[in-house]
Design goal:
Number of strands: 6
CATH architecture of one domain: 3-Layer(bba) Sandwich
Helix content: 10-25%
Radius of gyration: 23 Å
Structural class: alpha/beta
Distance between the termini: 49 Å
CATH superfamily of one domain: FAD/NAD(P)-binding domain
Strand content: 5-15%
Strand order of the largest sheet: 3-2-1-6-5-4
Length: 314
């Protein structure tokens, strides 16, 4: 019986298809890497565990943190130009997620990149190596990919870890590489609250998700990683909304600190995240260029204690 099971397991695994380059993870970086390789006349596979191209760019983060626009060039600039054409403009920096994904799909098709959705790296024995060289990767659905070059473009780095490539987790301290801005940082108005927000409940206990220990010395190393977030396009136009059902295990207390921060803003001001009209204005062909001229809107109209449960355009 054991031999029969092993034989059936072997039949279920496809022979590894050979490519010049295999990119694991269809994040924005993964998509651009695959296209760039294909432009060099290389046979490229883009292997994605999920169902979408673009990672954060198409997952809701359509309000680009572009800084000085004149410093953006190459394929990044081409992407924003391609997005612009979808809106009848030369270039668009703030866009709807579905438009960004449409652009990326067209781009990889033009370049001749083979895209594999729903192919997640096996948790165990997902790679084959020859010495220190990675030769093949295998996905949970039994598909194998062989290549001369592999790129891990995921946010998690699972392929990198299985290939036993050295890596680090968290922030290095300032002393390790002589970087003055490394490690634990002091208060910065773009990343911390500008006014006091209590982190304690009525029983003087810390709210959920709040670290009980000190932040650490300025410039010190730690093992913290950036939090995962939800980025969504919401609309106050009833015709452009889809219901957001209340999750079965929804716990409002987990978001109490954020809610207190929102409610602590003086009248006439707004939290910097309150840009609910951006996507609507882009869709109307207006573009969204001035981040300082957004209406307070969303926090006035939604019942704050149920924020996130009202209708929105996903």
């Amino acid at each position: 019986m054991k031999r029969i099971a092993l034989f059936l397991l072997a039949l279920s695994a496809h022979a590894a298809e050979t490519y010049d380059v295999v990119v694991y993870g269809a994040t924005s970086g993964g998509v651009v890497a695959a296209i760039a390789a294909a432009k060099q006349n290389l046979k490229v596979a883009l292997v994605e565990p999920g169902r979408h191209l673009g990672g954060m760019t198409t997952g809701g983060l359509g309000r680009t943190d572009h800084g000085r626009k004149e410093t953006i060039g190459g394929m990044s600039l081409e992407f924003y130009q391609r997005v612009g054409r979808e809106y009848g403009k030369d270039i668009v920096w703030y866009f709807e997620p579905h438009v960004a994904e449409k652009v990326l799909k067209q781009w990889v098709a033009e370049a001749g990149v083979r895209v594999y959705f729903g192919h997640r790296l096996r948790q165990d024995n997902g790679v084959k190596k020859r010495g220190n060289q990675l030769r093949e990767l295998y996905t949970e659905n039994g598909v194998g990919f062989a290549a001369r070059i592999f790129m891990d473009a995921t946010y998690e780095g699972d392929l990198l870890k299985q290939a036993k490539v050295s890596y680090t987790v968290g922030r290095e301290g300032t002393a390790q590489y002589g970087e003055s801005l490394a490690g634990v940082r002091p208060k910065d108005r773009n990343h911390q609250f500008d006014f006091a927000v209590s982190a304690y409940d009525a029983n003087k206990q810390l709210l959920p998700e709040i670290q009980a220990t000190p932040r650490g010395e300025i410039g010190a190393a730690d093992k913290k990683v950036q939090a995962y977030n939800f980025r969504m396009c919401l609309s106050d136009d009833a015709a452009n909304q889809a219901p957001i059902p209340r999750p079965a295990n929804y716990t409002p207390a987990r978001y109490e600190l954020w809610l207190r921060w929102v409610e602590g803003f003086p009248e006439g001001q707004q939290p910097p995240a309150a840009h609910q009209r951006d996507a609507d204005r882009v869709a109307a062909g207006e573009g969204v260029e001035d981040r300082h001229q957004q209406p307070r809107g969303v926090f006035d109209r939604l019942h704050r204690r149920e924020l996130g449960l009202s209708g929105g355009n996903l």
